[in-house]
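User: Watch each token:
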Amino acid sequence: MDYAESLREGRLLRRYQRFLADIELGAGEIITAHVPNTGSLLGCLEVGQGARLSRSSDTTRRCPYTLEQIQVGTVWVGVNTHRANALVGEALKQGAIREVSGYARHRPEVPYGQQRSRIDWLLEDQGKSICYLEVKSVTTSLEPGIGLFPDAVSQRALKHLEELRDCVVHEGARAVLLFCVQRSDIRVVRPADAIDPAYGRLLRAVMRDGVEVLAYGVEPTRTGILWGPRIDVHCP
């Protein structure tokens, strides 16, 4: 995935009201950027960390800048959760996710389930086989090489697990949860049991019921985001 133009760099001053961050650019210029992430961004919000921003051409936007990446040590972490779905869409088109390749049609944001949520990707083939694909963005790492999800207690994430299980149990369909790891220093993904133990318990339960769980890494750069290798999911 390529950005429309190279990201502008600065340093993080603070995040507040969840969706706003103050960023210092060159020559002491301070701007407010939109933060497209509902999570806590645990481990990614130290004052003074490097920040990369995209700028919208939409003149009606309150915040022309969007926070795209945060530097954690020597690694850049993609914090724009909307990029994860788009990245997976590109990978599906290119056949880069071997485990779900072979479906002729990839439809985004399709209503499904008893609670009428929207599945990130509905995969269909000519034989009418269906796969429900839910994407989750992973940004948190509290130990070297280990990515954690979620980064805060999330009722919404629990609901998505339940709906994926319903697809398998009640429809006989295929359901896949894909962790898109938006940093290049992760070798294994685990449920964040210490942060949201209910999520970890339910994840293990839906896996026993037939929901498949995958993880793939990406590498954020200043000019775009590179699709990376499959990553192990450790969920004992």
The two ends are 33 Å apart (CA to CA).
